[in-house]
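[SOLVED] Predicted holo structure with zinc ion

Edit: marking solved, answer below. Original request kept for reference. I posted the sequence and ligand SMILES and asked for the 3D complex as structure tokens.
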Amino acid sequence: MNVLAIDTSNQVLGVAVSKNDEIQAEYTVNIKRNHSIGLMPAIDHVMRETNLTPPDQLERIVVAKGPGSYTGVRIGLSTAKTMAWTLDIPPIVAVSSLELLAHNARQQHGLISPFFDARRGLVYTGLYENSRDRIFLKKEDQNINLEQWLDELKAYQKPVVFLSQDIRIHQSLIVEKLKNDAVIPSPIDHLPRPGILALLGSQKNPEAIHQLTPNYIRLVEAEANWLKEQEKKQND
Amino acid sequence: MGEIMNEYILGIETSCDETAAAIVKNGTEIVSNVVASQIESHKRFGGVVPEIASRHHVEQITMVLEETFDQAKMTMKDIDAVAVTEGPGLVGALLVGVNAAKGLAYAHQKPPLLGVHHIAGHIYANRLEKEFEFPLLALVVSGGHTELILMKTHGSFEIIGETRDDAAGEAYDKVARTLNLPYPGGPKIDQLAQTGGEATINFPRAWLEEDSFDFSFSGLKSAVINTLHNAKQKGGETMKQEDVAASFQASVVEVLTEKTVKAAKQYRVKQVIVAGGVAANQGLRTTLQSKFQLEKEINLFFPPLSLCTDNAAMIAAAGSIAYQQGHKANWSLTQMQA
Ligand SMILES: [Zn+2]
């Protein structure tokens, strides 16, 4: 199966091609810039390198669906959805951006907490567990205050692997809270890999194209306020 | 006998709160034209919330495309080029259309990708009804724009006048909000002005310098807001909403009309077209029509109401010219300034 993987959900722009579960091309840019400019040239590049032309040779598109940058996930999803829709053949698969990052800890057994900084003390995170060479979700992806999250993790009294491009900003707090249970791998393990996204997506069930939306986790502020108001009106 | 090849352009527009796609034949004929409006969603907030607009675009985009192709009974194989609004507009919203257009063009390898300026689209909406005659003057009035544009030939746009502050449509929306009219307020003001409103209040007209074709509406907007505020303070007799609307509209329409007529004469244009959301305004239409009735050699034209507001047929129509002129964007299609 020929698979194209796209991740524009955070600072990293990642594109990869895998064929029959073998990563054949992987392209990663880890600098802050507009993914809308870089994505299609990157796709064109990995497709050419692997001698694939999209109309008849692409069999699956995998996209990282967030959480992350709202604009970033939309760039990936608009591209992936439209390509999958127009090519008619390839199913589309969406993978959590946190789950993808969690797979960087596949060498370690136990709990994994991948996270993305969400400003004002908040993070996007979820809890994953690596057991018998399979990584599965233990606690839903969410938007939570990091201190509160660390208190929750402490209760497990087990080592937790932390993975994040923003690890440096939060490392001292993590170590302070979890002491010896805080496992922080070397810097290279914090970079999400599009090749892994391709392999992960090969094993998952496809989604309905039209209905596929990013996982923003957070409501838009205006909408959250509006909902609160509606609730208040109901109770009055 | 070789048959003349028809040209089919797919247009995509997501610059604000409409997710739209269309197929246009030979730059002048609509084959299909689909618009998914988000107006109901934004109504709750009294205006367009950019992040919510962007989210709706991602939800709608492939469905709108499917409907566009279904209505046309066509596939991407029939499409000669994909034209997409690259700006100006809400940055996050534009990105959805731009990346969808890239996805389509790339997936089929063949059709060139064309970036279209949103205002060029509004102007070219007219060509779906009537062929252009050059030199041509376009008055573009919408929530984001108030511009007088001179076109000497296809694809050439020379701005001879523009607003120095608020766009006309923006002033409409703000005055509507002060009058507590529901969103979108612009058309409601027009309605009030048409139904029994009398222009009894003399609001200011900003003519600016003698030879300038620029506009300014912020002074007028403030004058209206102050007048309403003062009337409220005094209590006493209340101002009729209809009269405020009519008086405000009279001021906007007079300035737009006078400047358009003056520019049309100065540049000796053959045709004047009115484009953008405010082109649907009845007050503006009637006044322009009566003024240009006296200018026999100038042909005044309005797009049908359905093509005044944002749509993708206009983007495809403008894209057709870019295609004919050999333009082609690369895969980066760097976005224009919002
Ligand atoms: Zn517009």
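OP edit: Chain B has eleven helices and ten strands. Thanks to everyone who chimed in.
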